[in-house]
Each structure stands twice: as C-alpha cells, then as structure tokens.
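We were asked to recover a plausible sequence for a given structure. The inputs and outputs are reproduced exactly as logged, with field labels preserved.

PROBLEM: sequence recovery
POSITIONS: 258
GIVEN STRUCTURE:
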C-alpha cells in the first residue's frame, strides 16, 4: 500500500494541535497542491484566503458554533466559491459590448454557477487536506463557515458572487489526537451502488446503524428524548439551531447572488 492510500485510509479530523508553527514552505506546498486540484474547464472558480489575523479567528470561533480550536490552529484556510473574478473579467474583456452587438442580454451568475464554483472550491480544499495529511499535518473541515453569511461577508470583504463554502484548520496533532480511534464508517453496500440509486429498507437501516445504536443506546435507553440514532441525529444535527442558521444563511447568499 503506498503512502497516499495509507494517508487517506488513516485520516480523521484533528481539533487539537501541538504548539508549533507549520513552516512556510509546507504551507506553500499545501496551497500549490490545492491549486492543482481538478477544476471545471480550468476556470478555478474559487479563491483561498489564509486567515492569519487573530481577531478574525476569534470572530470565527463565535460565528462557527463556538469552536475554540479555530483560534488556536497554526494554519487556517478559507475556501471561497468565486464567480466574481470571472464576471469581473467578462466586464473588462468587453462582454457587455459583445452581447449588445449580438442583441442578446448579458447573463449574470445563477444558481448552477454557484454550485459549480462550490464544487471547484471543495475539490481544491480536499487536495489541500490530502497534501497536509501526507506530511503529518492534521486537518479539520469547518462547514459552519456557511452560517452567518452577512457577518462573514463583512469580515472578509466578500463581493456579490463569492460565498465561503468551507474552511480548513491545519496543525500537527497532539499525541491524544494521534491515538484517538477513527470514527466508524458505514458498510460500503449501503453507500456504493452500481448503475442506479437504491433506497434502503428499514432492515437495512437497522443493520447500517446497528453498532452505533448499540454503542449509544445499549445501556442508556434514550438520549434527550431520542430512542435511536435516527431520532438522535434529527435532534442533534438536522433540526438544530446551527442547521437552521446554515439554511437561513444560504438562502441569503442565494438572494444576494441573484
């Protein structure tokens, strides 16, 4: 098994880091790796912001669901879905005049363009994660950056066609983090299908989540009113305040984008 596969199969999110800086040459390698990621039409519909300012990091601790390790991570990168750069280029390249000559309306970025830019940004983010992990640097995605769009827009001076889709914290993991077991993944048969999508039966769901249900509910009976893992995740994640804020925030970017 080669080093890349070993790195991918052993990866886990790391939220506690040694108090040592990541060398600048390694940071540069991580960013270069991100910029070599697959991208739609070689457009690179993303921008990357290194969040080095400590005051900004402290704000992010609060706006990203009170996660103190964000402020302590040696290296933090913000990945932005970005159609602003191309739309600005269209303007300076004379596209409005071209459309006028052709008698056609000028098209502006729409929802599909946003999703494509999100894909580009996320692919770049994961290339950065894979590069970092291969060099012994732990990583943690912060999806909560999608929340509080108005505040993040002001914090990072984001124009209309730019949306913060992901943030990643990087750092050398502590010994405790190295020894912490990997979280469980579900059986492949319930995730990977051939040719067509397949919905799962109750029996298959029972099997899929059996070990998790046994671990969480085997001796507890119930957790905050939930009697199984499905109810637990509905309360803890899907119907949580932060999920509702994420949806409100994404609805705001969609209104602003349009």
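RECOVERED SEQUENCE:
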């Amino acid at each position: 098994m080669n080093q890349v596969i070993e790195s991918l199969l052993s990866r886990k999110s790391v939220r506690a880091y040694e108090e040592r800086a990541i060398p600048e040459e390694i940071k540069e390698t991580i960013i270069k790796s991100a910029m070599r990621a697959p991208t739609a039409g070689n457009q690179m519909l993303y921008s990357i912001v290194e969040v080095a300012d400590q005051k900004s990091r402290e704000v992010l601790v609060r706006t990203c669901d009170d996660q103190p390790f964000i402020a302590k991570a040696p290296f933090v990168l913000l990945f932005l879905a970005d159609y602003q750069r191309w739309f600005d280029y269209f303007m300076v390249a004379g596209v409005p005049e071209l459309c006028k000559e052709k008698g056609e309306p000028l098209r502006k970025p729409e929802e599909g363009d946003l999703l494509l830019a999100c894909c580009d940004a996320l692919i770049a983010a994961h290339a950065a994660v894979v590069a970092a992990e291969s060099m012994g640097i732990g990583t943690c995605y912060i999806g909560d950056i999608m929340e509080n769009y108005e505040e993040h827009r002001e914090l990072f001076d984001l124009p209309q066609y730019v949306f913060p889709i992901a943030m990643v914290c990087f750092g050398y993991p502590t010994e405790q983090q190295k020894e912490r077991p990997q979280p469980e993944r579900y059986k492949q048969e319930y995730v990977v299908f051939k040719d067509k999508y397949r919905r799962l039966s109750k029996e298959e769901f029972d099997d899929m989540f059996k070990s998790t249900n046994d671990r969480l509910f085997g001796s507890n009976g119930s957790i905050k009113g939930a009697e199984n893992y499905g109810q637990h995740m509905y309360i803890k994640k899907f119907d949580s305040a932060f999920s509702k804020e994420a949806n409100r925030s994404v609805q705001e970017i969609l209104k602003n984008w349009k």
